[in-house]
Design goal:
single chain; 382 residues; mainly alpha; two-stranded antiparallel ribbon; two-stranded antiparallel sheet; 4 strands; 69% helix; globular; EmrE-like; SLC35F_Transporter; transmembrane helix
Length: 382
């Protein structure tokens, strides 16, 4: 009897035969996959740490408040690398063919990505650092809900326990910030700042879930190429309208240029590497991993900016890691055979007869973001 199909990330070990040695090898492979998933998420956190440090130097030491321009540089890099790659491809993966089929969907996704970055950065002008750190966690329930309804992902009790443990770790870090007095921010219009963070977190969640769908069912290069195309176009318009005067105030020299290069390199690395990690794990797991980014920035700030230290920071770091291990220790699964779900959503379509024997490999199509792909993902059938 066939049960629900579950995703198996690429690179998962497979075994044949029986016996104690096979069981030990399987356990060793599971542990290796678990450690690899956690480690990949921490690479993303380190890249965000680099983004935060370069932004801090630019804004505080050189008074270069140019968040839109910084994002624009990243989108230009994505355009030069990935959009041009799509342009030279042939057939259905060509840039023009993709634009003809789903240009407006990528246009909306590009705008969502731009404004998510802008809202969170803008919130620092109105509210405190602690509020931003806590409210930014709102992206996690957004991703869970969207994954549940649109990607048909189902979670087990251990996943929710891991999520709660991670959020407790963030709460511990916020408490440490209060104790050592790291509540930077104007705080005069705190409600406005808090709403900006919640809006940015919601847009991040939408963007991450769309990204997971695209990299699983279409391709990583297509996602990055379309984000580079529409991101550079619309962020360029936003830059010309909102930030052209700030650019004229920047005291340009080689140090500022180097900081912009460092920021762009970290941002480009984050955007390029995140789809790889999302495809191996999930959008939810990635956002849980990114909770440690603030802690890496803090540890660097102890030496660079002479931040005050609290033992609660270490407790927070290890609490988040424990939550990540708990969440990653068990795989999520798809609620039902997607072909049944697709037939339910399209009752007028032809009836699909599922095979009674043999391995079930459904073509997983979770949303209507793009045309259906003939490429079938790896599935595990219990």
């Amino acid at each position: 009897m066939f049960l629900s199909a579950a995703w198996v990330p690429s690179g998962t070990c497979s075994f044949s035969g029986a016996g104690g040695s096979d069981s030990s090898s399987r356990q060793g492979c599971d542990c290796l996959d678990l450690l690899l998933s956690v480690a990949l998420g921490q690479v993303l956190s380190l890249l965000i740490c680099g983004i935060g440090l370069t932004s801090k130097y630019l804004s505080e030491d050189f008074h270069a408040n140019t968040p839109v321009f910084q994002s624009f540089l990243n989108y230009i890099l994505l355009f030069l690398v990935y959009t041009t790659t799509l342009a030279v491809r042939q057939g259905e993966e060509n840039l023009l063919a993709i634009l003809k089929r789903r240009w407006w969907k990528y246009m909306i996704l590009g705008i969502i990505d731009i404004e998510a970055n802008y809202l969170v950065v803008k919130a620092y002008q109105y509210t405190t650092l602690t509020s931003v750190q806590l409210l930014d966690c709102f992206v996690i329930p957004v991703v869970i809900l969207l994954s549940w309804f649109f990607l048909l992902v189902r979670y087990k009790a251990v996943h929710f326990i891991g999520i709660v443990v991670c959020i407790l770790g963030m709460g511990c870090m916020a408490g440490a910030d209060v104790l050592v007095g790291r509540q930077q921010g104007a705080g005069e219009n705190k409600l406005i700042g808090d709403l900006l963070v919640l809006g940015g977190a919601t847009l991040y969640g939408i963007s991450n879930v769309c990204e997971e769908y695209i990299v699983r069912n279409l391709s990583r290069v297509e996602f990055l190429g379309m984000i580079g195309l529409f991101g550079s176009f619309f962020s360029g318009i936003q830059l010309a309208i909102m930030e052209h005067k700030e650019l004229l105030k920047v005291p340009w020299d080689w140090q500022i240029g180097l900081l912009y290069v460092g920021f762009s390199a970290c941002m480009f690395g984050l955007y390029s590497f995140m789809p790889v990690v999302i495809k191996k794990t999930s959008a939810t797991a990635v956002n849980l991993s990114l909770l440690t980014a603030d802690l890496y920035s803090l540890f660097c700030g102890l030496f660079l900016f002479h931040y005050k230290f609290s033992g609660l920071y270490l407790l927070s770091f290890f609490t988040i890691l424990v939550g990540l291990v708990l969440y990653s220790s068990t795989s999520t699964y798809v609620a039902q055979d997607p072909r049944v779900y697709k037939q339910f959503r399209n009752p007028s379509g032809p009836v699909v007869d599922l095979p009674a024997t043999g391995q079930l490999e459904p073509s997983v199509t979770y949303t209507s973001l793009g045309q259906e792909t003939e490429e079938e993902p790896h599935v595990r059938v219990a």
